């Protein structure tokens, strides 16, 4: 890596490889392409990524992609020594990998800390610089306020593991621009993680995704006590409370437990389906009709099964 400034580092990864991290980083792809939580970050694009302690640790993964062989690295630094190091990095990866910059997002980290630290909840690592540290990334971690790790390491816990079957779902969703999928399951089984990965991967091929969120306890992009309809155009690179966005439509539910408000929940589901079916703008975005009756029937069956009634 090359330190471009006090808080910006240029990294090089040779393909194929990946690196996990905990922290909040702004990542910009400079050369090649990188996969972050299913989303392909292309050259000169940047995203803020939340890989927090209480969630699945995300990774930066190289991909095979066309390379821009005429990048002007003086836009990042005019230091001749840095430019020489960058040229060395390109030779080391044999132009078959990626270059990307990392920098901290201090204001977002501070806001999270102030929000949760009163309850002794920590979502970001507390990095202490140590001359005795064994980590190759010691100086980088201290400046970026994050922790790095490789596949077989133990420095980062709860590493995101992508199931190979997810690729089949992505192919189904994106093949004919008419795919529909319902994700349901028990608590703690990884529904939200898989859903975010599917959305991110689909956005590599589709301009937008319609998300109907029926989880009133822990919605993907909304606050609790609501079922909602979202038009997703940007990847979800972090847990739900870092990706809150205004819904197109939402309906309030008086409890976060479906068992406490079964009739209200089913009534709200029916109302949301009617609203979305009548929304001409949403139909235009989708370019297709939505099988709301099927979705409502599936949700009703799932609730019956959960309650054993």
UniProtKB/TrEMBL annotation:
Residue spans crossing the bilayer:
19-41
- Provide a Gene Ontology MF annotation, just one: polynucleotide 5'-hydroxyl-kinase activity
Q: Which domain of life is it from?
A: Eukaryota
Which residues does the UniProt record annotate as the domain NOL9 N-terminal? 9-148
Q: Which UniProt keywords apply?
A: ATP-binding, Kinase, Membrane, Nucleotide-binding, Transferase, Transmembrane, Transmembrane helix
UniProt key word Ribosomal protein: no
InterPro entries (UniProt xref): Clp1/Grc3, CLP1_P, NOL9_N, P-loop_NTPase
Task: Tell me where in this chain the Clp1 P-loop domain is found.
Answer: 185-277
Write out the GO cellular component annotations: nucleus
One GO biological process term is: cleavage in ITS2 between 5.8S rRNA and LSU-rRNA of tricistronic rRNA transcript (SSU-rRNA, 5.8S rRNA, LSU-rRNA)
Q: Does the keyword Membrane apply?
A: yes
* A Pfam family reported for this protein in Swiss-Prot or TrEMBL: CLP1_P
Hey, which family's this protein in? Belongs to the Clp1 family. NOL9/GRC3 subfamily.
Q: What is this protein called?
A: Polynucleotide 5'-hydroxyl-kinase NOL9
């Amino acid at each position: 890596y090359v330190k471009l400034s006090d808080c910006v580092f240029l990294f090089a990864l040779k393909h194929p490889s990946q690196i996990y991290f905990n922290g909040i980083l702004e990542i910009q792809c400079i050369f090649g392409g990188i996969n972050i939580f299913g989303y392909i970050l292309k050259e000169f694009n940047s995203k803020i990524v939340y890989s927090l302690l209480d969630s699945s640790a995300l990774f930066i993964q190289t991909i095979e992609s066309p390379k821009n062989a005429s990048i002007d690295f003086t836009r990042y630094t005019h230091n001749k020594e840095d430019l020489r190091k960058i040229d060395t990095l390109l030779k080391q990866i044999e132009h078959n990998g990626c270059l990307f910059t990392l920098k901290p997002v201090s204001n977002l980290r501070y806001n999270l800390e102030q929000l949760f630290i009163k309850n002794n909840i920590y979502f970001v690592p507390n990095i202490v610089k140590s001359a005795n540290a064994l980590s190759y990334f010691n100086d980088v971690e201290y400046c970026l306020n994050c922790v790095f790790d490789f596949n077989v390491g133990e420095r980062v816990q709860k590493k995101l593991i992508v199931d190979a079957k997810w690729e089949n779902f992505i192919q189904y969703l994106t093949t004919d621009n008419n795919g529909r999928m319902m994700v349901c399951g028990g608590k703690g089984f990884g529904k939200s993680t898989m859903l975010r990965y599917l959305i991110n991967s689909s956005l590599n091929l589709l301009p937008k995704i319609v998300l109907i969120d029926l989880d009133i306890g822990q919605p993907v992009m909304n606050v609790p006590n609501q079922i909602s309809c979202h038009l997703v155009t940007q990847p979800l690179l972090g847990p739900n409370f870092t990706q809150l966005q205004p819904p197109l439509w939402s309906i309030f539910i008086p409890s976060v437990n479906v068992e406490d408000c079964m009739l209200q929940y089913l009534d709200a589901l029916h109302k949301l389906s009617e609203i979305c079916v009548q929304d001409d703008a949403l139909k235009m975005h989708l370019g297709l009709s939505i099988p709301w009756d099927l979705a409502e029937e599936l949700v009703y069956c799932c609730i019956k099964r959960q309650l054993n009634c």
